[in-house]
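Sequence in, structure out.
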Amino acid sequence: MKVRRLPPGVDGREFTRALAAFRVALGPRWVLTEGAVGLPGYADPQPVLDDGHFGASAALMPGSVEDVRAAVRIAGAFGVPLSPVLPGRDPGFGGPAPRLPGAVAVDLARMNRVVEVDPAGGYAVVEPGVTFHDLAGHIAGLGLDQRVDLDGPRWGSVLGEVLERSAGGPGFEGADASPYGMEVVLADGDVVRTGTAALTGSGPWAPYGCGPALGAMFARSAFGIVTKLGVRLRPEPAARRAYAVAVPEEDGLGPLVDALRPLLRDRTLIGTPTVRSVLLDAAAAGGRARYHRGAGPVPDSVVRTLMADLGIGRWNLYGELAGAPAVIDAQWTVIRDALAAVPGARISCAEGGDGGAEHVRPPADEADGWLPYGGRLDLTPVSPVTGADALAQYALARDHAHAYGLDYLGAFAVGARALHHRVTAVFDRRHADDRARALELCEALVRAAAEAGYGVQRAHPALMDRVAATYGFNDHAVRRLGERIKDALDAEGILAPGKHGIWPRRYRGLGL
């Protein structure tokens, strides 16, 4: 007989009573348990620990702000921990898995209304379940020549992308990158709006308001459940031009990043170009066995052969220009000349560029396809935008991966003032020792990156505490501050306990 999973510290009878209360508040069909179809979808989709370790005990599917308020009040009354879930969660970071094993998932996909679109104000107001595809379709249906001012996967939550800040995109690092006004349900069921959305009347959903800027506090945190968010819009460009640069040698990464930095700083280049490693691009074209069947990292001789076969570089830059054609022409002239100075650079452009246009779009990100039963575990160290730092980060990740017998698959999102390095450890999901090796590699990388001065921005639930531990200034003062805020806003410790290393008092120090 299968033993029912329970959240830590929650009595079985109390949990049963809580589920009954959730059913009354939300309706029976919107409360899923382990016997319900679909509940396995609320766990780590590519488990790096035992299957189901980071899994939910039940799932709630609220359809409104009032449903969310009812859910958190019931959870508080029974001491049941909750874990919000948004559409499109990245499997490399655990997907929909709760940090606290056994927490109850709060699936916000049903809350999928585009509440407002204000083209003059340059923003839209969305609920958590609105995907990039949904918002684009809604804007098109209104006949507006607008698009969301953020990059993200079509199936991903717009709100989630803003709060997690995982993909970069236009305005990623600028002063205007703060989220517009938001609506937040706190752990006691109270509802707060930030920015001018907090005006007594119907104010615009802008980030500006009196007093402290509270909106940013709810990004990448567990201090509340965001139920509405204002996101920036910009006019749909008159033209687009994709471009790519293939660089043949490992050390070409440094000159490439140094060439991009001034273009990004003076806004000749707007957006966040991505530089992908050779094996990451190769993974999209076919599995590892297509190129090499031996043990250990793929040899350099094989790498050079597949570069020639696939027509790619050791490093492959992908970007896009958007705007008026005359402006794009002027931008491209400056960008092309700057990138041409990178040793061995082969430049392609989709329209009016040199060198052909056959490789101007990045391949689909299918790193887990590198192995037949591949899973992925991702890290995102951040550093200054210099060629020296790019090469140092690459060497650190490559050498660690090779020491563990794994291939280096990675990419750099190059911003104006930060370099975001996404390192992917691919493992065979069938074998516990392979999963453990990938986890051990990433644990070692977290430590090594911190020692080199590179903080990790985002992590899988299995790594969150280790990442938080590296932010140790003044006896981990930033974590202690997070704990003080957590205890003040969420005294019962019910909202996403342990997310990014912030544990509430009831679970603190238990090693969960």
